[in-house]
Amino acid sequence: MRHELLQVKFIHSKTRIMRMNHQCDDTSVLRAQARRAASLRCYEIIRCMALVLTGILAVSVNGCQSPAEDMSKVQVDLTLEPSEPVVGNANVMVRLTDTEGTLIEKADVQVEGNMNHAGMKPSFAEMTESEPGLYSGTLDFTMGGDWFLLVSAKMPDGTTVERKFDVPRVKVQ
């Protein structure tokens, strides 16, 4: 059984019109439907493979964390003076202890201050070990509002510990 599918008009730039009658039988229609179904199956297989690879990648990245990410091994305490900071310089003290309460000396400690909203330049405190296990520096709160401080401490054994501290409501004097 033969079916006339459609009459296609092609318009050329010189407004010439060519007409083409295209006919096909039932088997060519079935073949076209089978090809379309096969391409959809291929698409679904590729999509599933992409999801599996994404999952494997996520697991492998999480499994590659440095040993310093173990939060329970190091206690990080942060103190600000004044305790209710205002715009301007504030003294920052960081105390590092292990699980037994022993002070951790000779660490490389850095403090970065950021506002909670995007678009502000971060402020950094240059930290020095003022006493064994106690690190101090000065941080400039450049404007009033909510801040957070990121403390990063590289231990003498090479591991790194990072903590985030919220500093709400820095006031304007």
Per CATH, the architecture of the largest domain is Sandwich
- Indicate how many domains the architecture comprises: 2
Secondary structure: number of strands: 10
CATH superfamily of the largest domain: Macroglobulin (MG2) domain
Topology as a string of helices (H) and strands (E): EEHEEEEEEEE
Helix segment tally:
1
Distance between the termini: 90 Å
Q: Residue-averaged pLDDT, rounded?
A: 79
The multimeric state of the shown protein is single chain
C-alpha Rg, in Å?
33 Å
* Strand arrangement in the largest pleated sheet: 3-4-8-7
Return the CATH class of the largest domain. Mainly Beta
* Proportion of strand residues: over 45%
Helical proportion?
10-25%
The main sheet comes to: 4 strands, antiparallel
User: What name does the CATH topology of the largest domain carry?
Assistant: Immunoglobulin-like
What key phrases describe this protein's structure?
single chain; about 170 residues; alpha+beta; Immunoglobulin-like; 2 domains; four-stranded antiparallel sheet; 1 helix; about 50% strand; YtkA-like_dom
What does this structure look like?
With 173 residues, the chain is an alpha+beta fold. The chain folds into 2 domains: 2-63; 70-170, Immunoglobulin-like (Sandwich), CATH 2.60.40. It has one helix at residues 26-63; strands at 2-11, 17-25, 74-81, 88-98, 108-115, 123-126, 128-131, 134-141, 145-154, 160-170. This is YtkA-like domain-containing protein. It comes from Stieleria varia. Residues 73-149 form the YtkA-like domain.
Short description:
This protein is α+β, with helices and mostly antiparallel strands and 173 residues long.
